[in-house]
Amino acid sequence: MKNTLSILLILFTLNTFGQEINSKRTILSEQSIVRGEDGMVYPYKMWKQLMASGKYALKNRETLTDGG
């Protein structure tokens, strides 16, 4: 009985932790500002194509301003 309760508690804890991680995802849209390492701001169509190629990835810098 104790083992079953312990396993259920662990599974519940892991499930709760998993839900917390997924809630921090950033949703990208046409209004998102994507800036390269060189500081160049990429237009939506261009960065969307780069992402579709699978050779590039985006990293969230968690800035809310254009100058970020």
Structure description:
About 45% of the residues lie in helices and about 5% in strands. The protein has a two-stranded antiparallel ribbon. The chain has one domain. It is mainly α and about 70 residues long. The chain is elongated and about 60 Å long.
Strands of the biggest beta sheet: in what spatial order? 1-2
Q: What number of domains?
A: 1
> Stretches where pLDDT falls below 50 for ≥5 residues?
none
Q: What is the multimeric organization of the chains shown?
A: single chain
* Termini gap: 54 Å
The biggest beta sheet reads: 2 strands, antiparallel
Which structural class do you get from the secondary structure elements? mainly alpha
Indicate the percent of residues in helices.
Answer: 40-55%
Radius of gyration, in Å, reads: 19 Å
Q: How would the global form be characterised?
A: elongated
Q: What's the total count of β strands?
A: 2
Number of helical runs?
2
Helices and strands, in order, run as HEEH
